[in-house]
Amino acid sequence: MNEPNPSAKPWAGRFNAPTDAFVEAFTASVDFDRRLYRYDIQGSIAHATMLSRQGILTATERDAIVSGLEAVRARIDAGEFVWSIPLEDVHMNVESALTADIGEAGKKLHTGRSRNDQVATDVRLWLRDEIDAIRAAILRLQQALLDLAEREVDTILPGFTHLQVAQPITFGHHLLAWFEMLERDRERLADCRRRMNVMPLGAAALAGTTYPIDRHYTAELLGFDRPAENSLDAVSDRDFAIEFAADAAILMMHLSRFSEELILWSSAQFGFVELADSFCTGSSIMPQKKNPDVPELVRGKSGRVFGHLMGLLTLMKGQPLAYNKDNQEDKEPLFDTVDNLKGSLKVYADMMGNLTCNRERMRAAAKQGFSTATDLADYLVRRGIPFRDAHEIVGKAVALGVREGRDLAELTLAELRQFSDAIGEEVFAVLTLEGSVAARDHLGGTAPAQVRAAIARGRERLGASEDDDTARESQFRQLVSETSETLEKWRQSQDISESSNPHPA
Ligand code: ARG
C-alpha cells in the first residue's frame, strides 16, 4: 500500500524549507483532479510504451511500469488508494504510488514528460469521453421528442409571438423545433471534440524534450488525431475547455427555454400539459400544489453553466505563455458543467417520455385570440384583393369579433361580408384550425403531413449518427481503453518496424 510521505515531494531537491502547511493545502488539487486518474494512467501507459519502443526504457522497465500502473488503477477503482495532499495532485499521487510499488523503474516514467503536458493530455482524454456521453444523452432526449411528436402530430395548439396568440400550429411541429435546437448542440459538441482531439504530450514543460520521442506513436495509442504542432501552445491552450463550456452554455440555454414553456404550459391558466407525478414535488403548506421542480431546476442550473464559461474565459485572458498554475482552476468548472449537463439531459429525456398532453385545452386556446386571422387575409388575397387591403378588412372583422366576444369562425357570413363582398360560404373551411395548419404544407411548415415527413427525416439523422458513434467508440476502445490491448498493439508494431527503429531497446 502507498503511504503518504510528505518529505517525498518529487521536486524537493532545490528547496531548503518544507512547504508551509496551509500553502500545501491551498495549492493542492488532488481533492478534485483525482477524478482524472483513469486518464492519467492511460496516458502514462501510452507514454511508457512509446519510451520503450524508442529505446529510452527497456522492455522490462516498461512491463513493470505498465503492470504497476494497472495495479494502482485497480486499487483506486476499489477505493483502497490513500490520496496524499502533500503530493499535490493526481499525477504525483499516482507516480509516487507506482514508485513505492515497483521501485527504480517507476522513477523513469516521467522521462521526457512534464506535468504540464500530462495534465493537458488528461483533461482532453477525459473530456473527449464526456462529450461522447453527453452527445449520447442529447440523442436520447431527441428520440423522446420524436416519439412524443409522433403521438401529437395532429394536436393543435396556439403558436405564440410576443407570448400573444399568433397562428395555430401542431404540437408535433413545436416539439420538432426543440429537436432542431438539440441537433445543433450535438453537432457543435462533435465539432469541439474534433478540434480538441490533438495530443499535447511531448511538449514537456514548454519547449519539448531532448529525448528521441515519437509523438505520432503516442498520439495513435491514445486515439488522438495528431500531436499538437507547437509545444508552447500545447501546454497552455485551454481553448478546448472554453469552447466546450460555450457549447454547454448554449445547450443549457436551450433546455432552459424548454423549461420555461413546460412551466407555463403546466400552470392552471394554460393547462396544456401535465408532468408525471414522479417528476414533480408538492408544497409543505399548500396541499393543492404540484410544482414543476425539474424544469425549474434545469432552468436554474443554466445560470451556473453560463458562469463557468465566463470563469474560464477570465481564467485565461491574462495568461502569458506558457503554463501557469492558474490553469489548475480549469477543472472544477469543467467537472461541474459536465455533471449538470448529463443530469439535466437524463432527467429531461425521462420526463418527456412521461408527459401527458391535454389536447382539449390546447385546442380551446388555439380557438381564442383570432389565430386564423392571417388565413382569412390569405383567402382574400387568393380572391384578388391586395394583401394590405386584405389586412385592413380582416382587422375590421377582428374588431367586430372583439366587441361581440366571438371568434372569426363564429361570425355569420352576412357579418363578414359587410367588410368585403369577396367573402363567400367556403371561407369557413379556411377559418377552421385544421384547415389553417394543413394549408402550411411545405418543407418546414406546420401541416401534419410535413411534420410526419420531418419526424421520419429526424429518425434517419439520429440513426446515422448512432452508427457513427458506435463505430467511433469501438475504434476508440480498440486503441486505448484496455492496457493489454495497448501492449498488444505495441508488440505488433515492434514486429513490423523493428528494423526501422532508430533506438532499439
Ligand atoms: N495540478 C496541476 C494542474 O492542474 C498540474 C500541473 C502542474 N504543473 C506545474 N508546473 N506545477 O494544472
TrEMBL record:
<dbReference type="GO" id="GO:0005829">
    <property type="term" value="C:cytosol"/>
</dbReference>
<dbReference type="InterPro" id="IPR029419">
    <property type="entry name" value="Arg_succ_lyase_C"/>
</dbReference>
<dbReference type="InterPro" id="IPR009049">
    <property type="entry name" value="Argininosuccinate_lyase"/>
</dbReference>
<feature type="domain" description="Argininosuccinate lyase C-terminal">
    <location>
        <begin position="370"/>
        <end position="438"/>
    </location>
</feature>
<keyword id="KW-0028">Amino-acid biosynthesis</keyword>
<protein>
    <recommendedName>
        <fullName>Argininosuccinate lyase</fullName>
        <ecNumber>4.3.2.1</ecNumber>
    </recommendedName>
</protein>
<comment type="similarity">
    <text>In the N-terminal section; belongs to the lyase 1 family. Argininosuccinate lyase subfamily.</text>
</comment>
<feature type="region of interest" description="Disordered">
    <location>
        <begin position="482"/>
        <end position="505"/>
    </location>
</feature>
<feature type="compositionally biased region" description="Polar residues">
    <location>
        <begin position="493"/>
        <end position="505"/>
    </location>
</feature>
<dbReference type="Pfam" id="PF14698">
    <property type="entry name" value="ASL_C2"/>
</dbReference>
<dbReference type="InterPro" id="IPR000362">
    <property type="entry name" value="Fumarate_lyase_fam"/>
</dbReference>
<dbReference type="GO" id="GO:0042450">
    <property type="term" value="P:L-arginine biosynthetic process via ornithine"/>
</dbReference>
<dbReference type="InterPro" id="IPR020557">
    <property type="entry name" value="Fumarate_lyase_CS"/>
</dbReference>
<dbReference type="InterPro" id="IPR008948">
    <property type="entry name" value="L-Aspartase-like"/>
</dbReference>
<comment type="similarity">
    <text>Belongs to the lyase 1 family. Argininosuccinate lyase subfamily.</text>
</comment>
<keyword id="KW-0456">Lyase</keyword>
<feature type="domain" description="Fumarate lyase N-terminal">
    <location>
        <begin position="13"/>
        <end position="307"/>
    </location>
</feature>
<keyword id="KW-0963">Cytoplasm</keyword>
<keyword id="KW-0055">Arginine biosynthesis</keyword>
<comment type="pathway">
    <text>Amino-acid biosynthesis; L-arginine biosynthesis; L-arginine from L-ornithine and carbamoyl phosphate: step 3/3.</text>
</comment>
<dbReference type="InterPro" id="IPR024083">
    <property type="entry name" value="Fumarase/histidase_N"/>
</dbReference>
<dbReference type="Pfam" id="PF00206">
    <property type="entry name" value="Lyase_1"/>
</dbReference>
<dbReference type="InterPro" id="IPR022761">
    <property type="entry name" value="Fumarate_lyase_N"/>
</dbReference>
<dbReference type="GO" id="GO:0004056">
    <property type="term" value="F:argininosuccinate lyase activity"/>
</dbReference>
